[in-house]
Amino acid sequence: MPHRTRPMTALLVFTALNTVLCATITPVYDFVCFLPYWERRRERRRQQREATTANSTN
Questions:
Q1: Taking Cα atoms as reference points, which of 17, 23, 1 lies closest to residue 9?
Q2: PANTHER family attached here (predicted)?
C-alpha cells in the first residue's frame, strides 16, 4: 500500500520555511558583508592600489 501524501501539510511547511528564510536573509547578509575582516581587506587593497599607482607614476 503506498504512503498517503499530505499536500496541505507539505504546502504549509514549505510556506513556513520560505517565510523564515526570507525573514532572516537580511541580517545574515548584513553580518557576512559588513564583517570587520572585509573592511580591513578593502582598506588594505585600496592602499596597495594607491601604492602601485604612486610607484608607476614616478
A1: 17
A2: TRANSMEMBRANE PROTEIN (PTHR36392:SF1)
Q: Which residues of the chain have pLDDT under 50?
A: 1
- CA 47: distance to chain centroid? 26
User: What is the reported pLDDT for 25?
Assistant: 92
Q: Return the pLDDT at 2.
A: 62
**Secondary structure (DSSP) of the chain:** -PPPP-HHHHHHHHHHHHHHHHHHHHHHHHHHHT-HHHHHHHHHHHHHHHHHHHHHH-
The Cα–Cα gap between 53 and 56 comes to 5
